[in-house]
What we know:
Layout: E1 6-8, H1 19-26, E2 62-64, E3 67-69, E4 71-74, E5 77-82, E6 85-87, E7 90-95, H2 111-123, E8 128-131, H3 137-149, E9 156-161, H4 167-171, H5 177-194, E10 198-200, E11 209-211, E12 219-224, H6 230-239, E13 251-253, H7 259-276, E14 284-286, E15 315-317, E16 327-330, H8 338-341, H9 343-346, H10 351-362, E17 368-373, H11 396-412, E18 417-421, E19 459-463, E20 470-474, E21 481-488, E22 492-499, E23 506-512, E24 532-537, E25 542-548, E26 572-574, E27 577-580, E28 583-584, E29 591-592, E30 595-597, E31 620-623, E32 626-632, E33 638-640, E34 645-650, E35 653-658, E36 662-668, E37 671-679, E38 688-692, H12 696-706
Parallel strand pairs: 7-8, 7-18, 8-9, 9-12, 12-14, 16-17, 17-18
Antiparallel strand pairs: 1-37, 2-3, 4-5, 5-6, 10-11, 13-15, 19-38, 20-21, 21-22, 22-32, 23-24, 23-36, 24-25, 25-26, 27-30, 28-29, 31-32, 33-34, 34-35, 36-37
Helix pairs in contact: 2-3, 5-7, 11-12
Amino acid sequence: MPARPRFGRTRATAFAVFAGALCLMLSGATSSPALRSPALLIAGMRDIPSPPTGTPWRPAPVDANGLSMVAGADGRRFVLHTAAGERSFLPGVDLGNTTPGHVPADVSISAAQYRAWFAAMTWLGIRVVRIYDIHPPAFYQQLLAYNQANPDRPLYVMQGVSLVGDAYIKQGNLYDPQVTEAFRQELKDATQAVSGQLARTSLPTRVGGEWTADVTPWLAGWLIGSELDPAATAASDRKNAKAKPVTGKYFRSTPEATPTERWLANRMNDLAGYEAARKLSQPIAFVNWATTDPLRHPEEPLRQEDQIQLDANHVRPTEHWPAGTFASYHAYPYYPDFLRYEPGLQGSGDPYLAYLKALRDHHRDMPTMITEFGVPSSIGSAHNGPLERDQGNHSEVEATRMSAGLLRDMAAIGLAGGFLYEWADEWYRYSWNTVAHQLPTRRQLWHDPLTNEQYFGLLAMDPAGGTDRSTLLDADGGWPATRVRARVDESYLHLEIKLGDSRPGSLMVGLDALPSLTGTPMAGSADHRPDAIFALNLVGHTGQAYVREQLDPLQLDGDVPDSARAQAPDGWRPFELLVNRPQTVPSTGARMPIEMQNAGLLQYGGWDPAKGGADSRALWNLDDDTLTVRVPWAMMAFADPSSHAVGVPRAGKLTTQRSPGVTVNLSASGKDQEIGQVTWDDWNRPAATERIKQGAEQIRDAALAVTSD
């Protein structure tokens, strides 16, 4: 975790000459109001309220063809057999397998975390937890213990089995014997894990241990495979065009099935055979996503997003598999772009809901379930979506409100379930529009508010390192500040600035991470230009982040013309993110322009989740004469703050220089004030605290409403 910051005095940085120009730009900035909702905090994940009351969800399996079945497909209905009758809609959540500081290959979730998380999930009205792979034995042990202790309010599990590695992509062949056999073995291991009969050693690509807990009484189904790469899938289909139809005992392929669909039918048949040997039957589906859905989207600008169609209708259960199958989709409200351009979706008022209805209608005799959906509560966005449901730039309250509304919509249109992506924020995740700005080997060691993929969780993984504050400046009568205190953590540099008498109307906070980096001197001064500025309008409560032109990370994202950029003084760039490249709609030839997010538009307000009206995106706040600011590391051009690495674009490539620390200076009304330098120790073990996000009660209300509990 970050050590206590150290501070030193440095030469002042003159930048007051830019104050006038920046303040003029601030006058046009806008700030969205903070949303009000009581925070749902779970201190230490221990003091969890009792689960919601209602009708019991105790499993009541039925016998079919000699197989025990707690869930099954009945036409378009997904039926979960419980003591209170049949449940036909499942509100669920997706659970990853990492914690801050770790990557998926690590085993990092503790038994205590699983235990607390299961209770919190149930409290939020979640009835099913979906996992993507075999989890460590602690997951199954704690699930069994929790369900035995709460027999009428259990948590069901949807067991996933992902493809082993990405060899099929490199070889362009799902039918490669090594790919197939590795996946078959993983399917077999998964059936043994859920029944408590697996022992295996750890390998770099798999978790090892001894599984002794039988959770099959609460096994609601299986999701096998991964989101398939379109190009690799197309190559595999070409190589295996003569693959034989599947006529298994439990699953078969239809005459229309593609080679990939036949391969999936075979693997579903394998899995069904393993389970039938234990006298069990559960619904089995394969993972699909909007990129490879069975519908055609001629308006989609990117060919790879409509290159391959995978259709669950082409993989059918036989009479020997009574639990049947269902269609599963990872589908989000902001991507692909056919959601914005397809005429058949636009006239509905909600293109995403119209798309879900189209998927439902395509599968006329099997249930359709959305097994990934949601919007992230990040500052940065990666794509614009209809109805402002973008891939980021949402507060926690706004994100949970949107996701809760989508869950209600899914139930209303007759889908079989909706699984919110995801349970906990995962720090190792990357996004296409920030990945080039970061050191990939250390991404899991810090939490970037600009990378939306790290903020999908219902459970916030807040940075906890560097909690000590130290005084950087203490000068009675100083102006514009009399005292400045600072601390660092895994997401931000925090500043607490006590303003002097006659508070200025605007303030420039200069942040210099690479004093040795040469650049154009500031007008009227030979002093070094700071690397980043927070330009704050203290009266209008607006603000804008700027980065030195040489450090602008957009240089790493290909050609972004100046015409697409917002204005800034010479030598500076507003901190922006690319959210869509120029593209052409194939059916009309319409050319769609490049799209940008002004991620440096600084949200004003409080961010303490324990206080009402907090906005998780807020980066600065003014309380009487005390200004608090938190600066995301990326806005100071850090590629990895844990190793002091600042990203320096050179010829479109990321290079890094080690920062000696961040020099802080203030400027107001033409006066510069020397503050000092913040330094910290490298860290390799980050710290985090767990917190249910603001607005999560909206998910709870929706989940209880759609299940009539």
